[in-house]
């Protein structure tokens, strides 16, 4: 025999469980009357650094977002000196050609060159593309820049030329 109290407990328990389920899942509805979650603030863009290159302990460069570039001359008193390179495009890779020339490549087809005479003097080069560039280096005597969607450019004199129909994957390992 089941007592009258026991007979009442099951329906009360079920009613409580259904009410709890309704309240719990109600917070996940698309009902416009419910307040939305607060939006997370967008952080201010920073000069994030993406690449570093140095020819020695007294000649080190770091570059990154919004055209940020810095030079370190080995003197801790001077610290990292900012360089105005004349672009607001992100610099994704710095590379030294071995003859004192340093190249910088980045977003929007940006290519810059420093001849090695003065760490502050960077000049823009026309890459002929607007795709983001992510890598630069030498292969069989030629200098190549590569980037988004298989973009590949080869330096010929002071001009960058395309290599149509070719796609490469940069593997630095």
List the helices and strands and how they pair.
Elements: H1 4-26, E1 49-56, E2 59-64, E3 69-72, E4 80-82, E5 91-96, E6 102-106, E7 111-114, E8 123-125, E9 133-139, E10 142-147, E11 152-156, E12 159-162
Number of helices: 1
Q: What general outline do the C-alpha atoms trace?
A: elongated
For the biggest sheet, the summary is:
4 strands, antiparallel
Give the fraction of residues assigned to helices.
Answer: 10-25%
Q: Output the structural class.
A: mainly beta
Q: Give the amount of beta strand, in percent.
A: 35-45%
Descriptive notes:
By secondary structure, this protein is mainly beta. It has one helix and twelve strands, in the order H-E-E-E-E-E-E-E-E-E-E-E-E. The strands form three sheets. Strands 1-2-3-4 form a four-stranded antiparallel beta sheet, with no helix packed on it. Strands 5-6-7-8 form a four-stranded antiparallel beta sheet, with no helix packed on it. The longest helix is centred in the N-terminal third of the chain and has 23 residues. It is elongated, with a radius of gyration of 30 Å. The N and C termini lie far apart (78 Å).
What's the short version?
With about 170 residues, the chain is mainly beta. It contains 1 helix and 12 strands, in the order H-E-E-E-E-E-E-E-E-E-E-E-E.
Characteristics:
13% helix, mainly beta, 4-stranded antiparallel beta sheet, 173 residues
């Amino acid at each position: 025999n089941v007592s009258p109290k026991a007979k009442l407990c099951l329906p009360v328990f079920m009613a409580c469980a259904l009410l709890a389920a309704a309240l719990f899942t109600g917070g996940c509805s698309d009902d416009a009357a419910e307040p939305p979650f607060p939006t997370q603030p967008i952080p201010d863009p920073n000069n994030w650094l993406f690449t570093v290159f140095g020819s020695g302990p007294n000649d080190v460069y770091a570059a990154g977002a919004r055209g940020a570039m810095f030079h370190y001359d080995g003197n801790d008193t001077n610290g990292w000196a900012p360089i105005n390179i004349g672009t607001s495009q992100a610099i994704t890779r710095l590379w030294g050609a071995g003859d004192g020339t340093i190249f910088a490549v980045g977003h929007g087809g940006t290519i810059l060159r420093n001849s090695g005479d003065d760490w502050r003097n960077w000049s823009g080069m026309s890459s002929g593309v607007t795709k983001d560039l992510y890598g630069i280096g030498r292969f069989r005597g030629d200098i190549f820049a590569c980037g988004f969607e298989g973009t590949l450019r080869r330096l010929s004199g002071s001009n960058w030329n395309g290599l149509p129909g070719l796609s490469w994957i940069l593997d630095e390992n």
